[in-house]
Design brief:
By secondary structure, the chain is of the alpha+beta class. The protein folds into two domains: about 60 residues, no CATH class; about 70 residues, no CATH class. It is built from five helices and five strands, in the order βββββααααα. α3 crosses α4. The longest helix has 21 residues. It is flat, with a radius of gyration of 18 Å.
């Protein structure tokens, strides 16, 4: 069983003040993880932090740099794809093959690639 009771909030790992939620396998009912839940105040704090970060980073970094950062995050997630597929299969009770398709759709690989190509096309047209 995994314990993921902390939340990353405004630059720090903190305990979720909204309790703990148990996640069970739909296939066999065993406990997969206990996940910390944010309180309403923590949700407000997270939103405020996200707005602050957006206001500062969007002015300092061009879209292509933000894209490159997100591409690195996507790559790191892709490196752990097998873990996510297994967890998804357990959590929702899907066969592994169906979980693979569902996970990649959620990961947004296709959309990110299309967005990057669209941005390059627009940038080239402006020059």
């Amino acid at each position: 069983m995994a314990a993921a009771r902390t939340l990353y909030l405004d630059g720090a790992w903190v305990a979720g003040a909204g309790g703990v939620r148990a996640k069970h396998s739909l296939r066999d009912g065993r406990l997969l993880a206990e996940v910390g839940q944010a309180s309403p105040a923590q949700v407000e704090q997270a939103l405020a932090a996200a707005h602050r970060a957006f206001r500062t980073s969007s002015r300092r970094s061009p879209a292509y740099q933000r894209h490159d950062l997100l591409a690195k995050v996507s790559q790191r997630i892709g490196e752990r794809a097998e873990e996510f597929v297994v967890l998804l299969a357990e959590e929702v009770g899907k066969p592994r093959g169906a979980s693979v398709e569902s996970w990649w759709a959620r990961a947004g690989r296709w959309s990110a690639t299309r967005a990057r190509a669209r941005q390059r096309t627009r940038s080239s047209a402006r020059r």
